[in-house]
Structure formats: C-alpha cells, structure tokens
Design brief:
about 525 residues; alpha+beta; Alpha-Beta Plaits; Immunoglobulin-like; 3 domains; 11-stranded mixed beta sheet; binds 2-acetamido-2-deoxy-beta-D-glucopyranose; Pherophorin-V4 protein; signal
Length: about 525
C-alpha cells in the first residue's frame, strides 16, 4: 500500500512537472496560431523584431561533429556596429534557424546541446505561423545565456529521422539560405522579449586547398626574341631578310643548346631555326627543355644572362655598331609560356661612339634634313685603269628620301642639289687615294681627281652637284692604292667611315652624317 501510494505520488509529481513544463513553455510560446495572421510577415525570422540590433551572432563557419551532428559557435559583440541600447545587454533566450519545411516530418527530430549539455527544452521543428506558406523554423528556446556565457558557446544539432528513415540529416537539407552556398544556415538570436533578433549566417568551412605537389616535370618552352627598333625617323631602313634570320637563329640556337648542355639540363627539343618565326624586325628562336631541377635552371639563367651581350651582337649581325643599325636599338629577351616564367631575361643596346670633329664646320648634321642618304655599306670593285695598277675602288651608293621623310629645317630648300660628299679620312693617307669615279644615276660615269680639306681637318671630298634623279642610286667610288683600304684611311669609327653630304658651301647649310661600313 505504502509502495503503491509512493508510486502514485511519483506519478502525480511527474504529471505536475509535465504540466509545469508545458505551462512554462506556453508562457514563452508566442506562436499561438490564432494570435497571428498567416503570411503577414514574409521574411525570416517571420516576426516583428529588429534583425540588425543585438549582441549575438553565429560564427561564420560550422563544423561537423559525429553522425548527423553539426556544431555552431556563438559570438558576442557589443560594439556600436552590432547593437545599440538594451539589445546590447539582453540575454540570449532563443535561437531560430530558417529551415526547409520538407524537414518537418512526423517523428523526425533534432537534439540540441549547448556546450555538450542538452537544452532544457527540446529543439522543435515548426511552421512559422506568421510566415508565408511553406516557411519553417527550428527553435531552440530557454537557452539562458548571457553576454558572458554565450561567448564561444557551442551549439550542436543532431538531426534524427523518424523510424521510417524519413527526415533531414544534413544541413544542406535542413537550412534554407537562398543566395548562399548549400549548407549555409541562417539564424536569428532572440532576447526574452523578442525585440532584438539579429540575423546571421554560418556556412560550411571551405575544403583546405589541395597540397602543393612540387612538379615532377616542369617543361620549359622558351624562345629568344631578337628585336630591332628603328629610330623615329627611319631614313636608312634596315629589316631582317630570311637569310639573315636563318643565320641569327642558327647562332642563337647553337649558343642556347651549348648553355643547356653546360647546365646539365635535359633538352626535349633543342633550339633550332624556324623560318616561320622570321619577321621584318624580330627573329624568334625556340626550344623546350626540362626545368624541374631548380638549381640547374638557376645555373642556366646565370649563364644566359652572361651571354645576353653576345646575343645582342648576334642579333646585330656581329656588332651593334653595324652601320645598318645606326640609331637603332637592339633588344634580346626571352619569351616564356605565359604560365611558367622559366627564363625571364632581357637586354637592349645601341651603338654609342665617341663624337668626332667632323665635318670641320658649323652646319646641321641631323640625318634626314636633306632628301639624300649614303647607304650603310660600301663595296669594293677593281678600279678604272685610269687610276693605275693595283688600285681598288670603294663605292658608296647614294639614295633619296620621300619628301614626307625630309625633316624640315632652315638649312635645306626644296630642289637643293647634292653639292658634295666629305669623308672623315686621315691626312696621312692622302697619297694612297688616287681619285674618284662617280656614277650619277641615269648618267655617264666620270673620273674626278681627289681633293682634301685644309691639312689637319682630315677631310676627303668630292664635288657632285647631283639632282634628286642623279642621286637616286648614284654611286661615288674612291680609288685607293692597295694594300690600303677604305677602312684604313677613315678615322673615328673602327674601320668604318663617316660620310657627310652637303647642299652648298655658304652659310647655313646641311651636312647630315651617315656612318658607313664594308
Ligand atoms: C534596428 O536597430 C538599429 C540600431 O542598431 C536602428 O538603427 C534601426 O533603425 C532599427 N530598425 C528598426 C526597424 O527598428
Ligand atoms: C528562409 O527560407 C525561405 C524558404 O523556406 C526562403 O524563401 C527565405 O529566403 C529564407 N530567408 C533567409 C533570410 O534566408
Ligand atoms: C615553327 O614555328 C611555327 C610557328 O610557331 C610552329 O607552328 C612550327 O611547329 C615550328 N616548326 C618547327 C619545326 O618547330
Ligand atoms: C627532369 O628533371 C628532373 C630533375 O632533374 C628529373 O627528376 C626528371 O627525371 C627529368 N625528367 C625528364 C623527362 O627528363
Ligand atoms: C677645323 O680644324 C681646324 C684645324 O684642325 C681646327 O683648328 C678648328 O677648330 C676646326 N674647326 C671646327 C669647327 O671643327
Ligand atoms: C638641324 O635641323 C633640325 C631640324 O630642323 C633641328 O631640329 C636642329 O635643331 C638643327 N640643328 C642645328 C645644330 O641647327
Ligand atoms: C664608264 O663610262 C665609259 C664611257 O665614258 C664606259 O666605256 C664604261 O663602260 C663606263 N664604266 C662603267 C663601269 O659604267
Ligand atoms: C698589288 O699589291 C699587293 C699588296 O696589296 C702586292 O702583294 C702585289 O704584288 C701588287 N701587285 C702588283 C701587280 O703590283
């Protein structure tokens, strides 16, 4: 009897507690369906409250923890950006997640823990009474956290299906956050009066980046580009022809292949000439090799760097002071596969020679001020018998410019003739020079005795008085006694000559200087 009474008492107590709990829950349950108008609040959290004001937010990333369990961290910030007034100090009473109504399955449930302890009131999946049709929330209430205890508190949800296996088990299924990656959950954090309901999101951590595996094979596709850049006023245009290109490609290829060998690098496809990589002002030579060994690649880089001046000389056809490249810039640089800068080098050069006291007068030496030029190369031919035995003629070709190319100046008037040509030549060789044979274009050749400037001015000169037609392709040949050569008698330019052309002899005249070589 006593034991029965005791059992009855316990039952009564259990009922009372059950009643008390449900009364208690009801006290906070403002979701009385009859008290709100369905669909009246279209947006989560489907209540009238301030979604931006409050101290509590979800940490941006949740973590999986065991079977169908996901944990969120709570962050507390009471700064002006997060909250104002009472919302900053209010306790955290309730969290609601915006969930998919498809997870509302009879018998399916969610178990919630805070810092590993089950919540006093079970988490509930529920329709949102004031929300639109199909809106649903997961409610965790009576949390009793404050701004101190909520900091870094961990809330874990275990998603359970019903006995039939129906219901949601992942956050991808449970959480509804349009515009965010799948698995992102949107939650609102409520104070007890439900005035403040800051909304925040937590998403899945991004997978760690794949580990960087050092490349086993790093094939390097590298080209060497040789480029000539003409001056703004390109009065003596020089362009690569196919034979020059082939020779330069071969020389660069030989040099590169030997440097690769020196660096002990395995070559997949040696540097080699390729006619389809020949352009007017650029020559490209390519190869492919194994760049996996970084030390070997560094050795190669150093070696190529050291050879760049030599490559510039190759690209210049021997020397950047090649008269054909007078006032040009020559550049040699590497071209890499965009993704992999195996070899990243570049060098530019131009020819700079010391100034010369020539011509011995004050006149305008700017190239292009007259429509006449002297071609960059001279050639040798057996001399007219008139100059005696064992004499060689060194011939300079004159060309003309289009009127549009002539640089306007005060020293030249239209139709001025090509009055004379002067060479900076050593007085010491006066006796070696026999005279000139001149060949005006479209006219007959004639011989002219040699003529020199005042002793000490080192000036050899010939009077021509050619018009544009006579000058266009006209030739002036200097007859010199063997064994001396034109290169021997000229001064100031390393076996080359400075030739200056004149339009007249009185004041304010032009005397553009052109460097010319064999
Ligand atoms: C919400 O609170 C912020 C201050 O944090 C305030 O600026 C804003 O006007 C409030 N919004 C509403 C709808 O009360
Ligand atoms: C809440 O979920 C519903 C779908 O149930 C969606 O239309 C709405 O955009 C969500 N709201 C937020 C703030 O994520
Ligand atoms: C020559 O260069 C062209 C253009 O880059 C390329 O398509 C071709 O394969 C090259 N030929 C050889 C033999 O490498
Ligand atoms: C490329 O070089 C690396 C490092 O020296 C070497 O391990 C690899 O076998 C080479 N691969 C080929 C295809 O030559
Ligand atoms: C021309 O040459 C003479 C003799 O060498 C020299 O004295 C004079 O300074 C020179 N004049 C010019 C303009 O170079
Ligand atoms: C030569 O002529 C050019 C073109 O008119 C001008 O720019 C330059 O200043 C002149 N030089 C001299 C030394 O007169
Ligand atoms: C130069 O002119 C003479 C006639 O005056 C002619 O016989 C000779 O062939 C010409 N020489 C050249 C190289 O044109
Ligand atoms: C021509 O000059 C060379 C030297 O340049 C000399 O060896 C040769 O004997 C000379 N020939 C004649 C026919 O004078």
């Amino acid at each position: 009897m006593a034991s029965f009474a005791k059992a009855a008492f316990i039952l009564a107590t259990a009922l009372a507690v059950g009643w008390a709990l449900s009364r208690h829950a009801e006290e906070y349950n403002e979701y009385d369906p009859s008290a709100v108008t369905p669909g009246s609040i279209p947006n989560f959290p489907f209540r009238n409250c301030n979604t931006t004001n409050g101290a509590y937010r979800l940490a941006p990333v949740w973590r999986p923890s065991g079977i169908n369990t996901y944990c969120f961290k709570i962050q507390v910030s009471q700064d002006a950006l997060s909250c104002t007034g009472a919302c900053c100090s209010a306790d955290l009473h309730k969290i609601e997640f915006n969930v998919s109504s498809s997870c509302l399955v009879a018998g399916a449930s969610v178990v919630a823990t805070v810092n590993g302890v089950r919540t006093r009131v079970g988490a509930t999946l529920d329709k949102a009474p004031a929300g639109p049709v199909g809106s649903a929330v997961l409610r965790l209430t009576q949390l009793g956290l404050d701004t101190t205890t909520a900091q870094d508190a961990e809330v874990c949800l275990t998603l359970k299906t019903n006995r039939g296996g129906q219901g949601c088990t992942t956050l991808e299924q449970l959480c509804s956050s349009p515009g965010f990656p799948a698995g992102t959950c949107t939650a609102a954090m409520f104070d007890v009066a439900c005035d403040c309901c800051p909304v925040s999101q937590a998403g899945q951590a991004l997978p760690p980046p794949p580990p960087v595996i050092p490349p086993v094979l790093r094939p390097c596709d590298v080209c060497i580009a040789a480029t000539i850049v003409p001056p703004a006023n390109d009065v003596r245009p020089y362009r690569y022809d196919s034979a020059t290109c082939a020779a330069i490609q071969q020389n660069i290829a030989n040099a590169m292949n030997s440097l690769l060998g020196g660096a002990n690098i395995n070559v997949f496809s040696p540097f080699a000439p390729n006619a389809s990589q020949c352009f007017d002002t650029q020559i490209i030579t390519c190869g492919r090799f194994n760049g996996s060994d970084t030390d070997a690649l560094a050795t190669l880089t150093g070696a190529v760097q050291q050879q760049l001046p030599a490559f510039v000389e190759i690209a210049s056809g021997g020397t950047v002071c090649n008269p054909k490249l007078e006032k040009y810039t020559v550049t040699v640089s590497t071209i890499n596969n965009v993704a992999d800068q195996c070899l990243d080098l570049s060098q530019s050069a131009s020819c700079f020679l010391p100034g010369v006291p020539f011509p011995n007068c004050t006149c305008n030496t700017t190239q292009g001020v007259m429509p006449f030029t002297v071609s960059p190369t001279w050639y040798a031919q057996p001399a007219n018998v008139r100059w005696g035995r064992n004499v060689t003629e060194y011939c300079f070709t004159v060309n003309t410019l289009q009127p549009s190319q002539v640089v306007p100046s005060t020293c030249y008037n239209a139709n001025d003739a090509l009055a004379k040509i002067e060479w900076y030549a050593s007085d010491a060789f006066r006796s070696a020079v026999k005279g000139f044979t001149v060949y005006p274009a479209g006219g007959s050749n004639k011989t002219i005795a040699d003529s020199w400037g005042a002793t000490g001015t080192d000036t050899l000169k010939v009077n021509l008085n050619w018009n544009l037609q006579q000058a266009n392709g006209g030739k002036v040949c200097v007859a010199i006694q063997n064994p001396f050569t034109m290169g021997n008698i000229c001064k100031g330019a390393l076996g080359q000559c400075y030739a200056s052309i004149f339009n007249r002899d009185n004041s304010d005249y032009c005397c553009p200087i052109y460097r010319t070589g064999p």
